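Changelog note: in this version the structure field was regenerated for every chain. One regenerated record is shown below for reference.
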Amino acid sequence: MTPVSGVPAPTLRTRALLPARVILGYAAAVLAVAAAGLAGLANAPGQGRPAILGTDDADRVKAAVKANRQQLKDVTASLHQELNKDFSPRTLKRFLKSMGPNGGASATA
């Protein structure tokens, strides 16, 4: 590997100490900087895992929670059947928290 933009390449000694994924990550970073400058290191939109529950599921989730507010496991089981999606009660809890205290509605409405 050759240095790009003043970034030194790992030496043989440091390469032996680094796992392969770190070396590959370094190579990817060097190529990104060479291709697009420092902007090439920024995260591109759409990176990461897509959400299991989205805004299109919010109305069904609200209705299921209203029907059985006390048991998250029961709500999860009913939503499994209704939405035909596999998720844990913890995922449902995170989704409910992301909707906010008013269920995603604004405070003025």
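Spot check on this record: Residues 20-36 form the longest helix (17 residues). Residues 1-46 form one domain.
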